[in-house]
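ESCALATION

Customer reports they have been waiting on this structure for their group meeting. Please prioritize. Original submission:
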Amino acid sequence: MKSEYNRRKFIKNTAKASLGGIVLPSMFSSKIDSNNDLVANVAICGHLWVYASKFPPNWDCTPNLEQVFADMAYAGLYGVELMEVVLRRDDAVKRIAALSDTYGIKVSGSSYGVGFQMADKGQHQKIWEDIQLVVPRLAALNAETFGISVGHLGRMKTESELDAQAELLKRIFTICEDNGIQPNLHNHTYEVENDLHDLKGTLQRIPNANLGPDLNWLIRAGVDPVDFINTYGSQLVYLHIRDQYADGTWTEYVGQGATDFKAISEALQAADFMGKAAIELAFPDGFEPKNALKEDWKKSKVFVQETFGW
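Update from on-call: job pushed to the front of the queue and completed.
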C-alpha cells in the first residue's frame, strides 16, 4: 500500500530513559480542581501529517505551516505536533514561534524518524547529530513531547540490531530529559507486527520506556488496541488517533469509520490514562476531502472529546 508506506516513511526516533530506563512521568497532563483532587485532563493535539503528505519525499510542509496553525487553532486543539523536518531550517524556531503566537496555539511536540534506521549502528552518528539539532529547537518552542519511530529494515531485526537500537534510544532519552521534553516510542506497523517483535525487543532492553502508540497502525498490524492498552497501559503517555472504514480505507475525519473507539475509551479509563493524544488525519492516494481541513479537524476533535470524555 503505497500511501501507507509513504505516510509512515516519516519515521523518527526518540523516547526517554536515562541510564537504561529512567522515564519522565506522565506529566503535563493533569490539573487540580476546586476540591484539590487530581483530575485527568487529556489534551487533544493535531499531528500535521495530512499537510506534510503533499510534500514528498521529505515531507517538509514549511510552506503550509501557517495553514496548519490556523486550521488547528480554529478547531480548538491544544497544540500542533510537528515533524522534525520542519525544525531543521535555520529560521525554524523564529518562524514557528511567530505562528504559535499569532494563532494562539502551542507547539505540543514533534514526531521523529523520517528516513533513519536506529538499528543500523552505521547511522548512529548522523542521527545523533540531527537529534542534537532538533531537540533543543523543540525545547526552544516550549514543546512537551517527542514521538520516536525507530525505523524499518524490511525484515525482523536481530538481537544485535535491537541492542544497537536501544543503545541509541537511551542517549536520545537523556537529551530529551535534559531539555525538559517527554519522549515516547511511537509505532507504525513494523514495530508491532510479528507478535510485537520490534517493540518487545526494545522493551526488554529499556523496560520502562514511555509509549505513544498509533492506535490505527496497531489495528492495521493485526493488534487489538484494547489488548495493547490492557497490557501496556501504565506506560502510555501519548496516543495517535485516526479512523478507518471496515475495508481499511482511511476516513476524512475521526468518527466516520468502523474503529471501536468506545471500547478503546473504556480500556484507557481502566488504565487511568493521563497523557496527551493527537488526532492524525491521513487520506488515501488521490482522495479529495469534501470539507475544508479546518472543519475536519473540528469534527474530529468534537468526536474525540465526546467519545473519550476529554
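Sent to customer with the following note: The first strand starts at residue 10 and ends at 12.
Escalation resolved.
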